[in-house]
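Why does this matter for the project? Reviewers at the last site visit asked to see concrete outputs rather than summary tables. In response, this paragraph embeds two records directly. Each consists of the residue sequence and, immediately after it, the corresponding structure tokens. Nothing has been edited or filtered.
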Amino acid sequence: MSKGRLVVISAPSGAGKTTIIRRLQQDGSQWRFSVSATTRPRRSSEVDGEDYHFLSDAEFDADLAQGKFIEWEWVHGQRYGTLRASLESAVAEGRTLLLDVDVKGAVNIMRSYPEQSLGIFIDPPDMETLTERLKARASDDPQRIALRLERLPEELAYKPKFDYVVVNDDLDQAVDRIRNIIRETA
């Protein structure tokens, strides 16, 4: 059986990583999505267990104490974490798993699974486009958008730690480029 692969996709908020991952899954591939855990409130369009495992602070603390996370971070005032069991089963079963994680979490995963990880950073075309995308998704108030933009320089500084950088200035082209990267590096 072939080794499993962890395709670690990261980007600043609003760069399009979640949209890209959803599109990658629509092409009928065997690529599965790694569902992260978070303490942030669920958006109206999200489904618990599909988009995220939405946990209370107490539940997150309990899972953390039990060593269930391979990595976790505070991001924009909420905690996000990647469950160890989903990564280990993907690797053991030879599956390709798509991960949507923040930059620090991505680096931690790539460090923990150097042979199985493929790191792809989604770069926004420019600040103006990124700001407009954050406003257009209408899931955050202006204060939360400002926090996301404030974190941008820190997130962009992680770009060199990834295997590939793809600018998302055209969604179809970005999805095709990432799909090709995953296939070509298999």
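We now turn to the second protein, recorded in exactly the same manner.
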Amino acid sequence: MNNLLKGMALLFALAVVSCGGKEKEQKEEGFSVQRKKATTEKPVETSTTNKVKASERVDMSTKGVGPVTSVDLPAEIDQAMAAKGKEVYDQMCLACHRVGKKFIGPAPNGILERRTPEWIMNMILNPQEMVQQDPLARELLQEFNGSPMSNQGLTEEQARAILEYFRTLN
């Protein structure tokens, strides 16, 4: 029994020594990467660090792509039209857009401070072409995880009513 314990201890010692030797061989035979500390004086800034999100960017220069080329907004909000717009919005848009918070799509409040009325109506009426041809609409698609706005088949009158409702949200 004593010889058996000595033999097992000897085998264990040999196993430990032999494993240790293999690690050293692997380190010598393999390759290693030595990293050096960057020597630049200024931190490198990527374009995404300073870039404003598409949903927050102000772009009042484009009308978008679609049937709407001109919209005249009177100084006073048409409350009856806005009420109709809220009804249409609640039926057709509420599944993806929430007032006051980001949801599947951007929040509509304050949109008239960031986009032209024509762009808004074209996005409502013509979302597929807008995403294909309008750079801002493409960026919004990316910002909102590739969830495209679906074409709800609204009329220009309904889109105009929604726009009037948006005017009440500012």
